[in-house]
Known about the structure:
Elements: H1 3-15, H2 30-40, H3 46-51, H4 55-89, H5 92-95, H6 101-129, H7 132-141, H8 144-177, H9 181-219
Amino acid sequence: MDFTESLVAVDNKTSGEEQPLPEALRSMSLVMRVLCFLALGCPDLHNHWNSLQSDRAFETVRTRMCHILGNTITTASLLAISSVFAIIVFPASYFGYTPSVPYCLLFTSLMFAMFALLISGSSMIRWIHTDRHSTQEQFKQGGYFVWSYLLSIVTPMFFIFWSLNCFVFAMLIAGFSSQNGIYRAVSAFGLIAYVVNVGKISIEAMYRYRTGLEHAGYRQ
Length: 220
């Protein structure tokens, strides 16, 4: 039992107002389960629905979400600054590349970072001003609200992911296009580290998703 679930259990003993998971939230498509996993770390809404049963648990979830969105804003800001710096200061002739691909990738990275900033900021404002009871009532309806709720959390991560990848590939293309052997060697090392880390994260994510599905099946 995690910290959120323990808070819910303590508060429910005193209030006696625990409500079962609504029927609209029980049957979920594969896409919805993946969104739940990316947004909430679990491929179902059971634990998140439990957090709506308690003011203390909901406050814990809200603090955690604001912290994640704050980190997203910080990361997007750093990516935007780095992209602008690379676009303006990058000595293309020194690196020895003439194609426009790195510059296009840097502009794309900047665009995605700005989208992430905009969506993260609006999502954080929504989380700051939302309350448990209205969220609970909207969750009972399912459908559009649940989709928009999950997408407001996942979309900034999506833009950060692509912004970071565009920036990394712009640097790799610039490095491999250089006539300097040191830059090529550093780019090769960076590419290997990138592939290893992406593979590791993907394996861990698939394991956690499968474990979450097993736990969800056990609860049902």
